[in-house]
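Let's practice the habit of predicting before peeking. Look at the sequence and jot down your guess about where helices and strands might fall. Then scroll down.
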Amino acid sequence: MVAEPLADRGPVPHARAGRPGGIEGRLAGTAEAVDDRTCLLTMRGDDLHLIAVAVACLELGFDVLEPVELKERLHALGRRLLSSRI
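Done guessing? Here is the structure:
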């Protein structure tokens, strides 16, 4: 059981905040512009698997700042997808 949200700061997608069809409308979170190319995506949630899947579905490059458990979950998800027979 987790007493507080696991993901207070999310990944940094390589996309601009506030653009039409941008990431704000594609998942639950807020995007704050860092510069003209990047933004800081802040997400909250208690299920890291769902957060990892949502981030993976963005189809954008990103860097996870924290929590380390989200990085681990994304690595595990990537390994599982790469080992699948398609």
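How did you do? Residues 24 and 37 are 15 Å apart (CA to CA).
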